[in-house]
Amino acid sequence: MSNVIIFGAGLYGHKYALDCLQKGDNILYFVDNDSAKHGTACTLEPAGGGAEMSFNILHPNALLKTEFDKVVVATHTGFNEVVAQLLEQGIAPHKIDRSYTEHNVWARKVFLQNFATLAKERNLEGNCAEVGVYRGDFARHINASFPEKILYLMDTFEGFAAIDLQNENKGAQNIGAGHFANTSVELVLSKMPHVQRCVVRKGWFPDTARGLEDERFCFVSLDTDLHDPILAGLEFFYPRLVNGGVILVDDYFSTGYVGVKQAVDCFAAKMRISVAPIGDNGGVILIKRG
Ligand SMILES: C[S@@+](CC[C@H](N)C(=O)[O-])C[C@H]1O[C@@H](n2cnc3c(N)ncnc32)[C@H](O)[C@@H]1O
Question: Probe ligand 1: pick from 106, 133, 182, 235, max atoms within 8 Å of CB?
């Protein structure tokens, strides 16, 4: 039996923790970089019944004072930065279990690269956009995969907007406005391999789509976590996709951000289109009919 600490007390932290329990691991506690979660608890309902289990959520410094066998990196957003943070803290590399998340992040990147290859073969016109850029970790792969296309980088760069939380469930509302504010335009641009092709649209989406009504798109990533900007993104971008173009929506399978699936299903039903998972344990795509 391994003594395990889970890094990331969000959706994936819950999922991976349940897997650890099923494997017979002993979870010591969770750690998270979000100070709002420190001192609170993470509650798990083991698969197949059994009593609820509750685990403390602590500051990552707690790792330095604990004997453990592995720390499971259970956050997709900022995955590389969390691994770097652990190494900087002096955690031995063999104790950092990145396998769960690495597979998913890798699957998403390979999907994007394969789609870029097809788009080139088929001479798909139109540009790229991401709504929900945060620190630019997926956007840099979009920029690398489509070096000739403009990439619109759309984010408040100040985290969730209060107005978008009004229609969310308690869980998302508790996360609060301003979540994901620890970023900046400069940081994001510094990660872009073809920065001259990037156009920053800072502010609340859909306001930031104003002026792009005549633009056409080939690849769009919607990663805002919340129902309203996801629905607004589908409504704005789908009519402007070229035939064969794709919208990727992250977190469709999230059990925390349930508004994402609701928005996608509502839009897909209205437009009579299908969605398909991309194998990264989170996202689905919508393809524009030819
Ligand atoms: C999960 S993060 C995006 C992660 C990012 N795609 C990555 O690769 O790491 C969600 C982002 O959506 C942004 N966001 C949420 N609602 C928004 C809105 N209505 N307008 C603009 N940005 C929004 C937040 O500010 C946050 O940066």
Answer: 133
